[in-house]
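Reopening this one. Same input as before:
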Amino acid sequence: MDDNKTGALKKLIDNDKVRRIVIISGIVGIALIFLSSYIDLGKVKMSEDEGFSVTTYSTEIESDLQKVISQIEGAGQTKVLLTMENSVEYIYLENSTTKTKEIQPHIRGVLVVCEGGDDPVVIERITEAVTKSLGISTANVCITKLSE
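Same output, byte for byte:
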C-alpha cells in the first residue's frame, strides 16, 4: 500500500501541470509576503473624526455651552471658557498597538461671562445647567457679569 502512495505521488510530481501550479503558487505566495510589508492590512487608518485634540474638544464644549446658556432667560450675550485637567488618555491591549479605550480629559473649571451675571436667579440657573451637563461641582463654576 505504501508503494501505491509513493507511485501516485511520483506521478503527481512528474506531471507538468501540477509542477507549474506548485511553482506559480509559490511565486504568488512570495510576492504576497513582499507586498505585505508595503500594505499594512492590520492597522486601521484614522479618519479625521477619530483624531483627538484637546483644544478641539474644549472648543466644541465651550461653543455648545455658550449656545445653551445664552438661551437661558436673563443670561443674554454669553462667553464661556473651560479649563481642562489633563489630555486624552488611551488604553491599549498589553504588548499591542490595539486601542481598547479612550478616556476623555476632565474639565477642571468653567468660567461663564454673561450680561445677566449679576442677577442671582440667572446665576443659579446657569450654575445648575453647567454642573448637571458637565457633571462637575458648583465650586468649579464661576459666573460673572459681562462688561459693557
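So the earlier flakiness isn't reproducible anymore. For the record, The longest strand covers residues 107-114.
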